[in-house]
Amino acid sequence: MASTRESDAVAAQPASWRDAVADFLSFERNVTAASSAVFLLGLGEELWKKFLPKYLEALGASTPVIGLFGTAEDFFDAVYQYPGGWIADRFGRRRAFLIFVALAVVGYLIYLFSPSWPYLFLGLAFVMAWQSMASPAIFAVIGDSLPKERRAMGFTLQSLLKRIPIVFAPMIGGAIIASVGIASGIRIGLVITLALAVATAFIITTIKVSIKSGEPINILGVWRSFHRGLKRLLVSDIIIRTCEGMADVLIILYVTNILHVSIARFGVLVAIQITTSIFVYIPAGKLADRIGRRPLVIATFLSFALFPLAVVVAFTFPLLVTAFVIGGLREIGEPARKAMIVDFAREDVRARSVGLYYLVRSFSITPAAAIGGLLWKTSPQIPFVTAGLIGLAGTLVFLLTVKER
After folding, report:
1. Which of 63, 99, 140, 193 could form a disulfide with 351 if both were Cys (CB 3.0 to 4.6 A apart)?
2. Residue 315, helix vs strand vs coil
3. Which residues of 318-357 are buried (b: 16+ CB within 10 A; e: fewer)?
4. What is the pLDDT of residues 223-273, one digit of tens each?
5. Which are the contacts of 375, defined by CB distance < 8 A and separation ≥ 6?
6. Could you tell me the pTM of the whole model?
7. Which of 380, 249, 370 is CA-nearest to residue 312?
């Protein structure tokens, strides 16, 4: 009897602090592996990604062409989403990730050896395979591996590992560029990215997720499977991302060319923005799993609207710091929004539902960056003010139409 009581007491002891942390952060083997892959490849890309507009400029591209590059990025982000989801549902998450990494490597090589700016558009077509095609697979891994009450924290882990490189990688990239020049600095970053892509492929091989099969279904069938709440979320998200797309590709040009802030200091601003995001991710993720997704999504949409307005009224560096803190707060509700998408999606078409959602969203906002580039020619401030007003409208649409399931 005493022996039995001792065994019960041992079983009742709390888990180790490592287990407690893992449970709190929703660590799970497949989610951790997928998030680590995002971290590694993001670490390489963020050395040069924020400076691509300046790279295009160095290779002879005009401001409208740079805006068109942002539009091309949105276009590929749109058309790649559903194929990425289809590949993940058809061939499995692990094999899909390996395909996407291989395609991205081809793009990095094209960027590395581009003699002029038109080649960057070709490279973009391959680079976006990881950023866009892999996105539905990452969503699906989190949805497959975690119960509903832990998904927001699962997306928080993924978002943290995605954003942490942005804290220091742009500063490193900016310092390299400052010492060797735009073209050489970005090419050094690309070589590092190629090495990290190999490490990413090894991590991906550890992912093992069983897929729930369903009836064969085409893209129209996937759309019909959408819950009405998911469709309403999509509408408000399109408006918000139009706000983002119109201004974001031009921010580095506005800060460096109009406000005359150095590239290195711009890297510091980006680090401040991402550090802000990191500080709010974990409490926001736990809150979203406890009180619901909607309040946090409203907060993130409002931050999207205020960021371009804050940039355009920032005439001093401290005001720019404040603006980029607001930019960091745009992520406060991102895990909640992603969890809401997965909550609404039907299980047997989860990756395709996510892919179709982002296909429609990204395709709808494709013209935004090009319109922003054209508005810039009238006045550099106009695209930012216009974007802010559009963002406020998108926040109102979500507030009035979207309820949680």
Report:
1. 140
2. coil
3. eebebbbbbbbbbbbbbbbbbbbbbbbbbeebbbbbbbbb
4. 888 888 899 999 999 999 999 989 988 898 899 889 988 888 888 898 888
5. 246, 382, 383, 386
6. 0.73
7. 380
